Amino acid sequence: MYDTFYGLNGRPFQLTPDPHYYFESLTHRKALSYLGYGLAQGEGFIVITGDVGAGKTTLVSHLMATIDKARLTAANIVTTKLDSEDIVRVAANHFDINTDHMDKAQLLSAIEQFLHAEARAGRRCLLIVDESQNLPAGALEELRMLSNFQLGGQALLQIFLLGQPEFRDMLQNSNQLEQLRQRIIAHHHLEPMNAEEIEPYVTHRLSKSGWSGRPKITSSVFRVLYAETAGVPRKINALMSRILLMGSIEHAETIDQAMVERVLADLKGEDVEIAAPPTASTEPENPLWEKPKRDYELSAKQAPEAPTQPSESRAEPTSAQEHEVVNLHVPEAPPQAWQPEQKLSEAPAAPYAEDKPGAVSAPPADKATAERVDSMDKRLTALENRMNGQEENLHRVLTMLIEWVENDVRSKESYINAGRAA
């Protein structure tokens, strides 16, 4: 209603997360740097926590909008209370794996085959778990086991965990999650926006909907918005929607403090809480990103009876919470990680740590074959050396970007603090 009256081409303050309206506050910029660093690493867990309505889902959907979907297959889960087997089945379903009539052993094997097939197609896999505070320790431990899947020494699945502050407390204090804590390579807690960011946030979302200065909004409105919402984006959206609705009903061309106070009085009279969070189990009507089409399909018939257990031999990555990076480029997996194409039903059942390129189980049939094998082994060694050099260069670039982001954030915080002192 108000969008028509004010000539807007969208609903700038809808509560449904939409990457089109993404606003990069200081805390969101830092979180985005952590996510970018995590994607560049290609393994482990990245944890983003924040209060209800802080913008966790919008942040991740904005990140996914920048990713090359031909090289990354992502699945998004909004969790309820799921046990360890349920979380495995739900993850498989969100990767479009047919799980009908499968027990847990077959589920694990089907997921393994899927990850192998994606790797051979040149795609990495990312699992995003929203509302992670709803998961028991057993389900989180099952996710850790899924992250053990690897091929040729390369991790096949990376996991983002999004949750409310109690999830952060759970990770820090639960003895059952020690191994998971060691797999977390980056963590950031989203804070509410500063008072100085309220006006840019509101005008940014309005501008994304074609706002041309109508209605005019007085500066006192932004002070009241911050006082009433404490800088939480979803609360700001809910309150601004009501303010613009009242403005359109009254045919107001200016939104001022008096109108905001009338809206607040109405809300208190209706006993309405600003921006009540949606039910955690409901998923968006439209996916935040499209999955790439694949030319194969897993079925229950293809799943072997015996499970292939994830390898536990992979070294535990150490925590790297101090790193952050702006570069969101997803590096290609090294060529030596991929195996020749084979039928899914013939996928190796041995632990991935033994699935190394160039390994042969029998001596070569003749001298010519031996020479070819030796030549391939030398080429693979050269490729490994080249990849090691590229990885060192990448780490140097990441370090420079991290220092730049931290200096920039500190500079802005100093500027804001100086403004407050003045």
Protein model, in words:
By secondary structure, this protein is α/β, with parallel strands linked by helices. The chain has a single domain, classed as 3-Layer(aba) Sandwich (Rossmann fold), CATH 3.40.50.300. 45% of the residues lie in helices and 10% in strands. It contains 13 helices and 9 strands. The strands form 3 sheets. It has a 5-stranded parallel β-sheet, with helices on both faces. Strands 4-5 form a two-stranded antiparallel ribbon. The protein has a two-stranded parallel sheet with strand order 8-9. Strand 4 and strand 5 form a beta hairpin. Helix 2 runs antiparallel to helix 13. The longest helix has 55 residues. It is elongated and about 90 Å long. About 21% of the residues have low confidence.
Percent of residues in helices: 40-55%
Number of β-strand runs? 9
Q: Please tell me the total number of domains.
A: 1
Strand order of the largest sheet: 2-3-6-1-7
* Average pLDDT: 77
- How far apart are the termini? 41 Å
Q: Assign the CATH topology.
A: Rossmann fold
Q: What is the C-level CATH assignment? A: Alpha Beta
Classify the secondary structure makeup into a structural class: alpha/beta
Strand content: 5-15%
By CATH's scheme, which homologous superfamily applies?
A: P-loop containing nucleotide triphosphate hydrolases
H-E string: HHEHEHHEHEEEHHEHEHHEHH
Main β-sheet, in a few words? 5 strands, parallel
Shape: elongated
Please, how many helices? 13
Uncertain stretches: 275-364
Rounded to the nearest angstrom, the radius of gyration is 25 Å
Tell me which CATH architecture applies here: 3-Layer(aba) Sandwich
